[in-house]
Automatic annotation (TrEMBL):
Keywords: Coiled coil. This is Uncharacterized protein. Residues 376-413 form a coiled coil. InterPro entries: DUF499.
Length: 421
């Protein structure tokens, strides 16, 4: 008689407890004749999965790739030390063409969801990942990393949302990671990396951290040094990945860092809340804020500030040193061009009532760089959004302590950014 049982974390876990009770009774009867077998040890899982998905295994290639990645890990100071052990080097070889971390994430995290079948679910998901990699034919794929579980693939998305009852993560993926329109933040950021002849690192980082976010009953996410081992490939410095993580924390709507661990959450972050406020800031408010900031920053100086004059009649012809800040909406210059704007020539040469200007040498101008205007408006819009949010006591009351601290820190950054812009 052969008795088999699903894992307590498997799709049939609700029946497993009942069967366990029966087995406990049966065991007392057959114990003297029973031989208990454990068909799959944890260390053998790599081989089991590989044999189910690939006909052949090239031991020579496995050794070459394992050596290359282990060398990369050893030479990277910031890498988690677990990737630098001889034992891990052996794991790299045994798990080839999969990265050990990918199998581990599926085994210890994704399988914590009762609706994810530990073996069949993992095999189905990995089969879709392999198919997706084959179709994309990206040149730097030597080992199947967690980063390659591509959430821009609808079938893979379904496996890691609906199939594990995580439908609340669908808007998270659509906003920050991937959607069919190609306008999720990670997808838009990919272009910056591809312009530098780099792979789509934003999507890869988002895919990786999403996988680490899938767990029940334990701390979500993972530290940056372990994430590095799950995404890093030869030829790209670790600083590139760390910089990307920081940018995601600052800009993504559902991405968080807590106690050194990075993860996605179904609750929106301060970034999303502020973005909602930014969408309702009026253009007139932006112009008024810029004017008020200019007036505040230049008042009390050796110069007499004249903010956004309409023409020569707004600038007195006297021996005061005038600092004239022209209206960026109507006057700007390209740093690559030498042409002087017409309004500068008018104010320089003429005073009130078309009279020739006498005190030309006491007149100085500040003109906006046309390439920086959109940044100026964005920074100002964000500042106004913070102001609006602080006026909304109800929204403030709903923030967690961590969110309030982040809001205060970001507000200080944006205040400085507005002055610099």
């Amino acid at each position: 008689v052969v008795l088999t049982l699903a894992s307590s974390r498997d799709a049939f876990s609700e029946f497993t407890a009942e069967v366990n009770n029966v087995l406990n009774e049966t065991e007392s009867v057959i114990a003297r004749k029973a031989r208990i077998l454990y068909p799959t040890k944890e260390s053998e899982m790599y081989g089991v999965i590989r044999r189910r998905l690939f006909k052949n295994w090239d031991e020579k290639s496995a050794k070459i790739i394992a050596d290359a990645y282990f060398s990369l890990y050893e030479s990277t100071d910031e890498m988690n030390n677990k990737f630098k052990t001889k034992e891990y080097k052996n794991y790299l070889k045994m798990s080839y063409p999969f990265h050990p971390e990918l199998i581990d994430v599926l085994e210890t995290r994704v399988s914590s969801f009762s609706t994810f079948q530990r073996t069949r679910g993992a095999l189905r998901l990995l089969a879709r990942v392999i198919s997706d990699i084959w179709k994309k034919k990206e040149e730097d794929v030597h080992l199947i990393l967690p980063a390659y579980v591509a959430l821009d693939n609808q079938q893979i998305r379904d496996e890691l949302t609906g199939k594990i009852k995580k439908d609340d993560f669908i808007p998270v993926i659509h906003a920050d990671i991937a959607n069919d329109k190609g306008d999720a933040k990670a997808q838009l950021w990919n272009k910056d990396y591809q312009d530098k002849k780099l792979p789509p690192l934003a999507s890869r980082m988002a895919n990786t951290t999403y996988l680490y976010s899938l767990i029940i009953g334990e701390a979500k996410g993972m530290d940056e040094y372990t994430i590095l081992g799950s995404i890093m490939t030869p030829g790209i410095k670790s600083s590139v990945y760390f910089s990307l993580l920081k940018k995601m924390d600052q800009k993504f709507w559902y991405f968080r860092e807590s106690n050194g661990r990075f993860f996605f959450n179904s609750e929106p972050t301060i970034n999303k809340i502020i973005q909602d406020y930014m969408s309702i800031v009026e253009s007139s408010k932006i112009r008024a804020r810029i004017r008020a900031t200019l007036q505040s920053e230049f008042s009390g100086s050796l110069f007499k500030p004249i903010i956004q004059p309409n023409g020569p009649s707004d600038v007195k012809d006297d021996d005061n040193i005038d600092l004239i800040v022209l209206d960026y909406k109507y006057t700007s210059v390209d740093s690559k061009e030498d042409k002087t704007p017409d309004i500068i020539n008018e104010i320089w040469n003429k005073a009130k009532d078309e009279a020739p200007r006498i005190y030309k040498n006491t007149t100085f101008f500040i003109v906006a760089d046309s390439n920086q205007i959109s940044r100026l408006e964005d920074v100002t819009r964000e500042y106004e959004a913070y102001q609006k949010m602080e006026e909304n006591k109800e929204d403030l009351a709903n923030l967690t302590k961590d969110q309030r601290e982040r809001l205060e820190a970001k507000k200080k950054d944006i205040e400085l950014g507005l002055k610099i812009a």
